[in-house]
């Protein structure tokens, strides 16, 4: 069993974690603090124990929020955050910086914002192409030695980068986008993770709400919503992708669940070493997502799901050109990779 899975079991975490980003970052205006705190309190009460945040989210606001929400509950949760990508306070632009000094400074600031003396898992949010991955991982390893983090992870990296990183220090987890309509980890990353007993933490397991039927018309999304700039949600590609969703919805109805729950159940069926962390701004949706852990899919249902939304069927890459340049993951030919 991987280090991450062992620690999750220690806090009695269900196989589904909570991505906290949505409350502060990426999907339009931030959720008002009181409402966001109620949502995180409710998430804990309904059983979530794995909470994921990052320095980047809300320009540190999300870490502050999570820190307040988990005050008094720290020993009962598995807390993960990320370094190496932050908002520059002057330009308002994202900056990727994997230098050891930056990693240390961001970790210490994260610990302060999260009101804790350690993080259960700390990721390098993005590969800094100006810094050898071994140097960034070495800096994280020193934080493990000092007890400031208990395990280190990487985010949005390729199988090649993972193999280089683990030659420096064991990598407990890799966070990557993985869902029915984003199969990129299947190219090479899942195999590399299993070689090293590294857990794959799947972010956006609901396709940024698409698989749950939460986006009927991207034109109605709030200003500042990151999906407005993503090719799959463009006016050109979205109608095609929306038609693909109908088969998933029909299958979900036949199984007495919703499409989001079915998408999460499919992901859970890919292996115990894959941990989805759906995010939501809604308490009801958090509850629906957590309930997906009880679904058991037959071999025939899995066969049908596996055939849906294959890479060649989905229109558009998952990121626009600028964001694609910031990541290190493998891409399918149909995405221009």
UniProtKB/TrEMBL annotation:
Cellular component terms per the entry's GO annotation: cytoplasm
GO molecular function, one term: oxidoreductase activity
Ranges where the NADP-dependent oxidoreductase domain occurs: 15-307
Coiled coil: none
Pfam families documented for this protein: Aldo_ket_red
SUPFAM superfamilies in UniProt: NAD(P)-linked oxidoreductase
Keywords from the named record: Oxidoreductase
Protein name (database record): Aldo/keto reductase
């Amino acid at each position: 069993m991987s280090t991450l899975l062992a620690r999750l079991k220690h806090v009695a975490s269900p196989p589904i974690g909570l991505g906290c980003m949505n409350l502060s970052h990426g999907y339009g205006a931030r959720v008002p603090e009181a409402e966001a705190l109620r949502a995180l309190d409710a998430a804990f009460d309904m059983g979530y124990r794995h909470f994921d945040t990052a320095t980047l989210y809300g320009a540190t606001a999300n870490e502050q929020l999570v820190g307040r929400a988990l005050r008094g509950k720290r020993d009962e949760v598995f807390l993960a955050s990320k370094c190496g990508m932050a908002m520059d306070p002057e330009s308002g632009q994202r900056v990727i910086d994997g230098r050891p000094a930056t990693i240390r400074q961001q970790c210490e600031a994260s610990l302060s914002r999260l009101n804790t003396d350690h993080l259960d898992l700390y990721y390098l949010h993005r590969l800094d192409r100006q810094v050898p991955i071994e140097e960034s991982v070495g800096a994280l390893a020193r934080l493990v030695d000092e007890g400031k983090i208990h395990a280190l992870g990487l985010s949005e990296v390729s199988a090649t980068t993972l193999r280089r990183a683990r030659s420096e220090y064991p990598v407990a987890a890799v966070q990557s986008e993985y869902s029915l309509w984003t199969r990129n980890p299947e190219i090479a990353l899942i195999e590399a993770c299993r070689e090293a007993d590294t857990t794959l933490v799947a972010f956006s397991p609901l396709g940024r709400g698409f698989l749950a039927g939460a986006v009927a018309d991207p034109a109605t999304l709030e200003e500042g919503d990151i999906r407005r700039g993503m090719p799959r949600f463009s006016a050109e590609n979205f109608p095609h992708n929306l038609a693909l969703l109908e088969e998933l919805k029909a299958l979900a109805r036949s199984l007495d669940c919703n499409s989001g729950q079915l998408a999460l159940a499919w992901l859970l069926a890919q292996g115990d070493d894959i941990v989805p962390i759906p995010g939501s701004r809604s308490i009801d949706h958090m509850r629906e997502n957590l309930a997906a852990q009880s679904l058991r899919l037959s071999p025939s249902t899995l066969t049908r799901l596996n055939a849906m939304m294959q890479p060649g069927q989905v229109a558009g890459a998952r990121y626009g050109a600028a964001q694609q340049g910031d990541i290190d993951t493998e891409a399918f030919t149909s995405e221009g990779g």
